[in-house]
Automatic annotation (TrEMBL):
GO terms for molecular function: monoatomic cation transmembrane transporter activity. Keywords: Cell membrane, Ion transport, Membrane, Transmembrane, Transmembrane helix, Transport. The lineage of its organism: Bacteria, Bacillati, Actinomycetota, Actinomycetes, Micrococcales. InterPro entries: Cat_transpt (IPR003445). This is TrkH family potassium uptake protein. Pfam families: TrkH. It comes from the Bacteria. It comes from Protaetiibacter intestinalis. It is a multi-pass membrane protein. The chain crosses the membrane at residues 30-51, 63-85, 91-115, 155-175, 219-242, 254-275, 327-355, 375-400, 436-458. One of its GO terms (cellular component) is plasma membrane. Its main location: membrane. GO terms for biological process: metal ion transport. It is found in: Cell membrane.
Amino acid sequence: MRTKPVQRDPLAARVLDKLGDFATVTPARFAIAVFATLVALFTVLFSLPVATSSGMRAPFVDALFTAISVICVTGLSTVDMATYWSPFGHVLVFVGVEIGGIGVLTVASILGLVISRKLGLRQKLLAASDANPLRIRRGPVSEGQAVRLGETGNLLATVAVSVLVIELAVAALIFPRLLIAGTPWPTALWESIYFSAMAFTNTGFSPAPEGILPFANDWWFLGALMIGVTFGAIGFPVIYVLKKNLRHPHRWSLHVKLTLITFALLLLGGTIAYFTLEWNNPDTMAGMGLGDRILNSLFLSSMTRSGGFSTVDMGHLDGSSLLVTDMLMFVGGGSASTAGGIKVTTLAILFLAAFAEARGNDDMEAYGRRIPADVLRLAVSVVLWGATIVAAATITIMFINDDAPLDYVLFDVISAFATCGLSTGFTQSASEPTQYILAATMFFGRIGTVTLAAALAASIRRQLFRRPEERPIVG
């Protein structure tokens, strides 16, 4: 018996085709549009009376700020996240950070892969633009990178599996520790899953009013959180390559090597800095033993990469430690990860460029590979756009709040931009206009400075001529 083909509505078909063309031709603008739509949807949901524990409608600024913080996996909040929201509200938080952490375009591609059992070129391009910022611009892209376009389907499968496996593994580590602490098993089950999701997505929200302070000296609990944060922060392309060639480092791409080396150096450097600078601080680590100081220094260095959890009051850190934290948060984690910041590979490229210039080399080289000049231009653009966003937000907030301390304002602004979530307490006590500025900073920080620039620039303009060369004085 022959079945008639399903007739598509002409208007709906045209709308879907237009959306598909828009998504494929300008994935940067499409990503921003989808992020904005999700923020609007979650703002409405958080505004519902059923979303709050009091049954009252949340103020618009709190609903909007929470929606952006959740979708952008930041971790900053204007309310007490553990007590203000109802169980329905916490489910919204959980679902939102999973979507925001993985990436909107990646989630859409995974759903398409599950439904259709195949991945077309359009879906591959969308997913690839989430995994490689170089692809958000129109024109050819070199395939000499961590993940090639033909491997996009395998990368999506790795994303889906790694999210499930890593979060379940971290939850399995946390669950017995909560039971030992006397938490009833239903609550322990929910909190372990919640903590694992917040760790892997680098969000940092806590389901308990006391946060993680009861486990401030617990190597097992804090170690589990650090594992989740690290796997989320190194990036899905790195996880994909390590899954294939874990025992064969010579097969690792340059991206993977730069990410792991720079990530490890910053983690070690941050640990040493906090251990040294907070040694005599009576408000943080002065009363701790040697082992606890090492643990908390390592944990703080790990969380400043975008994790957002904290065992100490960030407002009590020494001024020098606040500055170290600012720098670590601004750098953030790996590309195509759940972490924010300008990314560790961006920092590595800048150092390689400076090293090549000091040696008088025309090309940047690392591990036997040459890095093209357009990657350096992109790295410089990322840093300049990021610094501009941070500077503009800080200046505006300082203008609105004359008596606000600069180090606290700068700290929370960088935390918002880098979607880190650590706070000195300034965000929650700030005025509504200030909270709106911080919300915008979170949004621009999460969608990425490269994506923002590409969305504004529509496409690369091809210039068929070159102007005469002249060298300005630099330095």
